[in-house]
């Protein structure tokens, strides 16, 4: 399951996800299957980066594009992984968050 698929699945089940520092909080827990819990663990860093991004919609679109490139094989898997890692690192950067507060979201895409 890709990050985008996971986010959509959780949304369809009515599960709310929030970032609390370096932890994911989700509610209601009763809506999660063991497979979804495992997917959350596997994609934790990427989901945290998306949720902590100043422009969540842009971050989700970026992850969806990477999911597409990965599943179609249009981009080598290691390059997709590197792009995901770079997006997480950028989202964790204090400079990125400071810049985002003063600039329109489209000026600084993930």
Automatic annotation (TrEMBL):
Species of the source: Aeoliella straminimaris
Region: Disordered, residue numbers: 90-110
Domain called TubC N-terminal docking: residue spans: 3-52
Domain of life from the UniProt record: Bacteria
InterPro entries, alphabetized: TubC_N, TubC_N_sf
Pfam families to which the protein is assigned, alphabetical: TubC_N
Protein name: TubC N-terminal docking domain-containing protein
Gene3D superfamilies: Non-ribosomal peptide synthase, adenylation domain
